[in-house]
Design a protein that fits this description.
Number of strands: 11
Number of helices: 0
Structural class: mainly beta
Largest sheet: 7 strands, mixed
Mean pLDDT: 93
Low-confidence stretches: none
Order of helices and strands: EEEEEEEEEEE
Shape: globular
Length: 112
C-alpha cells in the first residue's frame, strides 16, 4: 500500500507561483506514471500533468501548458508541480496520484 501526501498549496494572487510537492511512502515499488489531478469548485476532477519513468515523458492538459511543470525525484520518492502565472481558474484541490490507483488527500490552491 502506498501513501501519498501533498503539500505546498495556499492562497496566491493571480500571476503568482506555487510549488506543490507529493511525498510517496510505503510500498512504493516500481511504477510507470505519477501525476497531478485537480478538482475545482463545482467541477469534475481533471488531469493536470503526468510524468512517466524511464525517459521522463511529461504530458499536460492544454490549459496549463507553458505555465506548469511536473517533475519527480525518484531517489526521494517525490513528485512536484511548479505552477507559474497562476489564474483564478486554477483554483482547485490538487491531488497526487500513482498509477491512478493510489491517491493523496489533496492540497488546496486558491488564486485570488
Amino acid at each position: 500500500h502506498v501513501q501519498l501526501v501533498e503539500s505546498g498549496g495556499g492562497l496566491v494572487q493571480p500571476g503568482g507561483s506555487l510549488r506543490l510537492s507529493c511525498a510517496a511512502s510505503g510500498r512504493t515499488g516500481s511504477y510507470n506514471v505519477m501525476g497531478w489531478f485537480r478538482q475545482g469548485p463545482g467541477k469534475e476532477r481533471e488531469g493536470v500533468a503526468v510524468i512517466y519513468t524511464g525517459v521522463g515523458n511529461t504530458y499536460y492538459t492544454d490549459s496549463v501548458k507553458g505555465r506548469f511543470t511536473v517533475s519527480r525525484d525518484n531517489t526521494k520518492n517525490m513528485l512536484y508541480l511548479q505552477m507559474n502565472s497562476l489564474k483564478s481558474e486554477d483554483t482547485a484541490l490538487y491531488y497526487c496520484t500513482k498509477e491512478l490507483i493510489s491517491w493523496g488527500l489533496g492540497t488546496q490552491v486558491t488564486v485570488s
